[in-house]
Design goal:
Blueprint: H1 25-38, E1 46-49, H2 53-58, H3 64-80, E2 85-89, H4 103-123, E3 128-130, E4 133-136, E5 139-142, H5 162-184
Parallel strand pairs: 1-2, 2-5
Antiparallel strand pairs: 3-4, 4-5
Helix pairs in contact: 1-3, 3-4
């Protein structure tokens, strides 16, 4: 089994985890004060968001672009509460969605969501494209390079397999945090 360090083996970064299985955006927005208060120091410098998959799966009346706008509102609220950077993760495909039941429908919705997020962040004049990641001050769009098209999934068709799925995800999140640390604390002359 691959060994995952809870702090991503980054010396200069303190990592704190918070999450709930099956969480929706509406619930995350309601819990935002509790989430940011539970993390220390007074406010985290960086929040990495892996959200929207459950909302896209539940479908309802919400379009992928509406869900994307809600994610951006959540990220903006986090910035307003003193967070320096919010990294939003691309939604990965699923082979057996829980509610939608049709993987093609879910994956089309995920693709539309991901495209909307990318296009919205790229339109921002201060965005720069670096190795498949779209960065602008305050909000970054993060695409997991080795997981985007057909990630290795567990039997449930939703969650990543330990190897190589979670290993690739771990390394991608680690890179995101490493890049965030460099962005927050630039070395003179770079």
């Amino acid at each position: 089994m691959y060994s995952y360090g809870e702090d991503f083996d980054l010396c200069q970064v303190e990592v704190q985890w918070w999450g709930e299985s099956g969480m929706s955006l509406a619930r995350a927005k309601d819990k935002l004060p509790e989430i940011t208060e539970s993390l220390s120091p007074p406010r985290p410098s960086v929040i990495y968001l892996d959200v929207a998959g459950n909302d896209l799966d539940r479908r309802g009346d919400n379009s992928p672009s509406y869900i994307a706008q809600e994610v951006l509102c959540l990220a903006t609220s986090m910035l307003e509460q003193g967070v320096s950077l919010v990294i939003i993760s691309a939604v990965l495909p699923r082979s057996q969605p829980k509610y939608t039941k049709d993987s093609q429908v879910f994956n089309a919705r995920a693709t539309e969501f991901n495209s909307f997020m990318k296009d919205t962040l790229v339109q921002h004049e201060a965005t720069r494209h670096v190795a498949g990641r779209y960065k602008r001050p305050g909000i970054w769009w993060w695409v997991h390079q080795k997981l985007t098209d057909s990630p290795p999934l567990c039997a449930d068709g939703i969650h990543l397999s330990d190897l190589p799925g979670n290993k690739h995800l771990y390394r991608s999140i680690r890179l995101a945090l490493f890049e965030a640390e460099k962005w927050l604390n630039p070395i003179e002359g770079e």
